[in-house]
Amino acid sequence: MTDGLVVVDKPTGCTSHDVVARLRKIYGQRKVGHAGTLDPDATGVLLVGLGRVTRLLRFLQVAGKTYRGTVRFGVATTTLDAAGEVLDRAPMSVSRDEVVAATKRFVGEIEQVPPMVSAVRVGGRRLHELARAGEEVERAPRAVTVRRFDVEDFEPGPYPLAAVLVECSSGTFVRTLAADLGAALGGCAHLESLRRLAIGTFDLDEAHTLEEIAADPAAAVLAPVVAMRDLERVDVDAERARAVAHGATFTASALAATGEGPFAVADPEGSLLAVYERRGAGMKPAVVLVGGAS
User: Fold this and answer.
1) CATH superfamily ID and name for 4-63+200-226
2) Contacts by residues 10-14 (CB-CB < 8 Å, ≥ 24 positions apart)
3) Confidence category of residue 279, pLDDT binned at 50, 70, 90
4) Which residue, of 161, 194, 241, 243, is most buried by count of CB atoms within 10 Å of its CB?
5) Which phi and psi (to 5°) does residue 220 adopt?
C-alpha cells in the first residue's frame, strides 16, 4: 500500500469523490481520501491522501485556501454558481470602483450562511442531499475569515464580470461571497468560475493532472512528512522515537515543542512518526503512524 499525499489539479466536470475513485484505481488501493471539497465545475488544487495519510487529512483540511474566480453581476442562480438554474436576471450598473469598495466589507472575520448545495451537515444530513430532495432548511451563519478579496480585472456592461482573488480560511464559500457581494451592491450575482490556487503551501506548481498521475503514479506521491510540512516539526532521537511509536505522552519541553501545535514528529531518518497536540501541560498523540498505537 502506498502512503503519501498527491496534489491533484482537479479538472472541471467531476466531483472530488470522482477524483478519489480515479486514484483508487491508479494506485490499486481502497484507502484514499481527500481534504477540502471542490465543486464539480471548480478546478485546481485538491489534496488526496493515500494509505496512512488519510488519517492526517484533518490537519490539511483546516489550512487556508487561495482562489481565483469570476463573479457575474445581475444574475442570481439556485446554487450561487454557474451550475444552478437562473432565479433572477436584471442589468446592474456598477463600476469597478464600486465593486472594489464593496469587497472591502467582506475582508476580515465575517459570518456566512452556507449554501443549500454544499457538503455542510445539518441534522446529520448534508445540505446538498436535502436540496436534491427539494427541501430547504435554516442554516446558522458561520464565522469565517477572508484575508484578501481583490478585484484583478473588470468587464463593464449590463451584466458586469469581475475577476477576483480570494485568500480565506477553511470553510469559506466563495460562491456565497459572490452572491453577498451582488446584494451589497443593490442587486444580485453568482460565481461564474472558480479555480483553487493553493491549500496552505501546496499550490498549482506541485499539482498534477489525472493524466500525469496515471502516467507515473509514484512520481506524484509526496512522503507523509512532506504532507505535514505546514505543521511545526519536531525531530526526536531513536529512544524517543520508540516511545512515540507506542503513543507515549511527553511534556512540551521533552519534545522541544515551542508553538501551539499540532506538531509533526519525525524520527532520526526524517520519516513521520506521528502528529502530536497539546493537552494541558502535556503533549499527546493525535495520530500515530507507526508502531502499535493509534
Assistant:
1) Pseudouridine synthase (3.30.2350.10)
2) 10/38, 10/42, 10/43, 10/44, 10/45, 10/46, 10/196, 11/43, 11/209, 11/210, 12/40, 12/41, 12/42, 12/43, 13/40, 13/41, 14/40
3) confident
4) 194
5) -90, -5
> 51-65, 129-143, 202-216: lowest mean pLDDT where?
129-143
Cell representation of residue 90:
436584471
Assigned C-alpha cell, 8? 491533484
User: Is the previous residue joined to 262 through a cis bond, with omega within 30 degrees of 0?
Assistant: yes
Q: Provide the pLDDT confidence category of residue 133 given band limits of 50, 70 and 90.
A: low
Q: Is 39 a catalytic residue?
A: yes
Q: Choose the catalytic residue: 3, 9, 39, 267.
A: 39
Q: What are phi and psi of 101, to 5 degrees?
A: -65, -40
Q: What mean pLDDT comes out for the span 135-149?
A: 81
Classify 65-199 by CATH class.
alpha beta
Q: Percent helix, strand, coil in the chain (nearest 5)?
A: 25, 35, 35
> Does domain 231-288 correspond to CATH entry 2.30.130.10?
yes
For the chain, residues classed under CATH 3.30.2350.10 are 4-63+200-226, 65-199
Residue intervals of the chain classified under CATH 2.30.130.10 are 231-288
> What is the average per-residue pLDDT within 168-182?
95
